[in-house]
């Protein structure tokens, strides 16, 4: 039972990233009808927002510490971060230590701005074009963004450590009645899962309980009728593109401590996220979230020693096998809507 629960936790961890990226993809497809293959690049940019803030906070200048000497007896030169010099070692050190969560404040305006620029500058010209054209142009944009990140940050992964207070592991087993040291799980992975749940709940709450969200949902169902009522639905859809970009970016920001950001991490998640969207049902927000967590859990169980020994490589193909089975039995996906991409 403890191994079973541990795999569930691992699946929820993986599923959190899948669900967040797939949620943003579905928001864009559901509102604008655009298949956005650049969405994985937005996830990558979010991760590098955390990298950028960490680098800015750790900018330092060199000073001589007379109280310390090197092996020759000379005064030792030390690097002092500017934030520690400006705000003191305690507060400045805390800013550096919590740079990843603080990067959320940087990522939100950056990602919303990038989303606006992408939609107004490029995507709007492809609304009425075939989906194949949309895939080609957004995939090309993803490659361009990937190469820009590679040029400025290099090809190697960059460490973005979680706050020291959230490092290490926690004994979850004792909380639910198991013996001590039976279910030990990293704290940051739990933080990422709960963060994902907050973001998902926030998006659904925004769409369900605000006037803006209700108009957007109406526009998703019947864009022309909403437009005839005198509502500028295009402006609202542009804002939703920015929100979808922010969701992907925030997923990337908090994912950095789990897997050091690199320039191709967006591509690594992109294909899997599209599989999640298709399995959940094109245009279905609940379907995207459900499929994200479901496939994350299945992938976790398929990665166990027993599974990989019984069927070598099953952990690499399980998601695609499930997608084939689902689409053969339910061509619209688990919660797909009638008429979506069926023309």
UniProtKB/TrEMBL annotation:
Keyword Iron: no
CDD domains tied to this protein: TM_PBP1_LivH_like
Annotated GO biological process: amino acid transport
Compartment(s) where it occurs, according to its Swiss-Prot or TrEMBL record: Cell membrane
Protein name listed in UniProt: High-affinity branched-chain amino acid transport system permease protein LivH
GO cellular component, one term: plasma membrane
Superkingdom per UniProt: Bacteria
Keywords, in A-Z order: Amino-acid transport, Cell membrane, Membrane, Transmembrane, Transmembrane helix, Transport
MF GO annotations: transmembrane transporter activity
Membrane topology: Multi-pass membrane protein
Membership in a protein family: Belongs to the binding-protein-dependent transport system permease family. LivHM subfamily.
Membrane-traversing stretches: 15-35, 42-61, 98-118, 190-216, 236-258, 270-298, 310-328
InterPro entries the record matches: ABC_transp_permease (IPR001851), BCAA_transport_permease (IPR052157)
Record's signal peptide: none
